[in-house]
Amino acid sequence: MLARLQQFTTLGLLVISAAWAGWCWHAGHVGWALAGSALIVFGYALVLAIEFMLLSRLNRFDPAPAASARQLLRAWWGEVRAAPSVFCWRQPFRSRQWPDHLPSDAPGRRGVVLMHGFFCNRGIWNPWLARLRNAGVPYVAVNLEPIFGSIDHYADIVESAVHRIERATGMAPVLVGHSMGGLALRRWWADAADPARVHHAITIGTPHRGTWLARFAFSHNGRQMHLTSEWHRALGSREVAGRAAGFTCFYSHCDNIVFPASNATLPGADNRHLAAVAHVHMADRPEPYAELLRWLKLPTPP
Fold first, then answer.
1. Distance of CA 277 to the CA centre of its chain
2. Neighbours of 135 (CB within 10 A)
3. Residue 245's closest CA among 230, 272, 266?
4. What domains appear along the chain, each with residue ranges and CATH number?
5. In the sheet that 174-178 helps form, which strands lie side by side, from edge to edge?
């Protein structure tokens, strides 16, 4: 569903841009043709700039390291480049490029379950999936749907993915969640009968304690990520004490979606700060992938 919606959005913007440019050019307004087309195609960069101004203001009193103007600019530029790749190519047109990988020789090999964030699909993981397949690592990358539904409903999807990996490998997988995907991970694990079904959990830019930006959310799952969400309090009450020790949480002082920045951390977890990197771009950074590889090699604790 999301892929088709983003196909329509991407192609629609290109058609509108071309139509505007053609009409203005025909009317002799070359400058308007170029300026209008650029605004239509690259207007998202202005929206990102507004988000960065907001995060800079709201992070002033956060315990996360303060971001310099240069770091904010670097992160903004990284997100400007990453967003079209994810939202206009990988997710709408290439989300099935790398199908789930459960080879016949999977038994005894540690696997991975990957969960995407809000308004995303499994296509965001394409660079990871290519590397994992080449390395012979079994994996399942889910689509969390309905895209605007409750995070609670995603637990069944996570359960199915974990079960498939367990059945194929005979081992507990490493679970990886970007953004809202990390909350779907926690929601499933909170009710898992056997906590040993997870070898380790890695979250990337997950609003573990909500995000200020969710005050503008219109969807059910978006409202659940509000800073004062009752859903967050209920999730915390369901989780086993000490559960955070099984997490590595990547966060950034330049995250333009989850801020204040420390809201992407969990007390008691291995919290890793990524400097000068924004929300979507964080999923393409080498550090989270390297952490995944490290846990894939570590034996199951006694």
1. 13
2. 10
3. 266
4. 2-93 (no CATH), 112-297 (3.40.50.1820)
5. 139-141, 112-115, 174-178, 200-204, 247-251, 270-273
**Using CA atoms, how far apart are residues 94 and 83, in angstroms rounded to an integer?**
15
248 sits in which H/E element: strand 247-251
Look up residue 89 and give its DSSP letter.
I
Strand partners, 178: 204
Q: What angle do CA 185, 265, 52 make, to 5 degrees?
A: 105
Spatial contact of 199 and 295, defined as CB atoms under 8 Å apart: yes
What's the CA gap between 129 and 141, in Å, rounded? 8
pTM over 0.90: yes
Whole-angstrom Cα distance, residue 274 to residue 292?
16
Q: Which of 47, 129, 64, 82 is nearest to 274 (CA)?
A: 64
Mean pLDDT by 10 residues, the chain (302 residues): 94 92 87 86 95 97 96 98 97 98 96 98 98 97 97 98 98 98 97 89 98 96 95 94 95 98 98 98 98 92 61
CA distances from 22 to 12, 29, 41 (A): 15, 10, 15
